[in-house]
Amino acid sequence: MTFTQFNHLIASQPDGVVLLEGRRSISSEDYVRATELASHLAKKFPQLRFRSGNAEGSDQAFSEGAQVDASRLQIVAPYATHRKSVRYTEALYDSPASMSKVQEDEVAYKTINATPKNKGLIAKRSAKGRLAAKAAYLIRDTMKVVGHSEAFRKPLCALFYVRLDDPMEGGTGHTIRVCHQEGVPVAFQDSWAHWTEE
Length: 198
Hints:
The chain has 198 residues and is α/β, with parallel strands linked by helices. Helix 2 packs parallel to helix 3. It has a six-stranded parallel β-sheet, sandwiched between helices. It has a single domain, classed as Rossmann fold (3-Layer(aba) Sandwich), CATH 3.40.50. It is 44% helix and 12% strand.
């Protein structure tokens, strides 16, 4: 996705949502780039909202940039108390616990469709312990993309910070697969890194 294509998407829905996220491991130089991008977009598109996942690394970098207007920042955490020490006061928070059973089942189904090897893990999402906690992260990742309420609509697009030689690894790769499944356009840093100059 180019910046021109991004502009067209935003023009169609100026108050839409852009998903901003990626790997936990990010260089200090790229951390600054991600923060600058989110800040630039928040200033350039004053109605646009931003969504992230409350993780360390890329998510945090993007969220810091969106602090231009924290009331336009949405955070979807795997559980309500996730990283309580790192909270943005004006941001809107949500987690899988807010979904109805029907919504959760639909999100679980879409999670399995995007990454079939996690079917057994998702089946244990209501249990206790480490496997249930891992399942909560994947459910959260899917939830960020599919939309589940008027406030948390499906995003217009998603900008990711990835390992360019293997963008589909881990939780970030799962989220990208959900984006593809849901028809949400994506861009990686090799595209968005220069958008602040546009």
